[in-house]
Amino acid sequence: MTDHAIRSESREIQTLYRPQVEQLGMELHYQSGGLEGQVDGDICRGRFQANLAGPYCLVIWHDITFLREMSFSEYAMTDYACLTLDESPVSNPVPYGVQPFTMQKGNMVSLIQQAGSVTNRIPAGSRSRTRSICILPGYFMELENQWPGQVGGLFDAFGRPWPSNIAQSALTALSTFAPGRPGQTEFLIKAHIDLLMAMLAQASSALVQSHEPSHDRDLVQQVKAHIQSHMDGDLSIDRIAQSLYVGRTRLCLAFRRQTGTSLARYIREQRMDRARRLLSFTKEDVAWIGRQVGYVRPSSFSAAFTRETGVAPIAWREGSNCIE
């Protein structure tokens, strides 16, 4: 991790660790290939290290003893995949809050951390010692865009058990991450993660392909629900793909296989269908109706509506007998 990388890290990456270390009263410094910090205060004592591994991955190690009870909050801007090896004393409470998690091997778990805030009450005397790999959705999107159809189901795989050999490889990789260990460069850490994800992708793709029709159906249902609930917002295909953690190519192919039409055409049809209903059954002005179906400029809405129906919005309303 370079000084430039630290300064330019995304807000999504920052929220994975900065709010937490601030609650502990800890200052971080760049050394040994990552950010390290120590604290010895009234609230807690211990050590922390974070290593960036590309723009979407972060490896975190910490060993913190809480000297008094406290409410500890975590926040994430987006859902992300997480693999954690818990080396805390067995008497500690489960450190994953209310998030569902999957036991993989030993004390290692995987989970899909939901966006938002989670607050846990930590008793005095508790010791938390964990190693975690946090992977943002952008990592999986980048893989899918680079290798269409070859990494299907990788993000979702963090919510189910892994084959034993992959879980063992993950446990071995996590065990190598520790403060001060030589050779923990950003390149080598990223290589460990990429190799692990390649093994997991191979197993996940085989599972997805064996259940491809049902996976496609589920994906298309999610797409349709997303479109209906975001009709007045950004319904670009890239944005939908990002929201559903799937590659653009995979999304478009699945939608066409299931519906026989393109996703772009379906979005246009759904917008114009809602616009026709609003024109027929409400007295709202055309500009307002345009905004309800995702058009900020009335002229853009009128042009799109006219192309789709052959008549202007005002003419459509005048020809409708549904408004008293």
UniProtKB/TrEMBL annotation:
Record-linked InterPro entries: Homeodomain-like_sf, HTH_AraC, HTH_AraC-typ_CS
- Any Pfam family hit: HTH_18
Question: Which molecular function terms from Gene Ontology are attached?
Answer: DNA-binding transcription factor activity; sequence-specific DNA binding
* Sequence intervals crossing the membrane: none
Keywords on record: DNA-binding, Transcription, Transcription regulation
Q: Any idea where the HTH araC/xylS-type domain is? A: 221-319
Q: Which ranges form a coiled coil?
A: none
Q: Where is the signal peptide?
A: none
Q: Which PANTHER family match?
A: ARAC-FAMILY TRANSCRIPTIONAL REGULATOR (PTHR43280), TRANSCRIPTIONAL REGULATORY PROTEIN (PTHR43280:SF31)
Name recorded for this polypeptide: Helix-turn-helix transcriptional regulator
In which organism is this protein found?
Answer: Bifidobacterium asteroides
Provide the organism lineage as a comma list: Bacteria, Bacillati, Actinomycetota, Actinomycetes, Bifidobacteriales
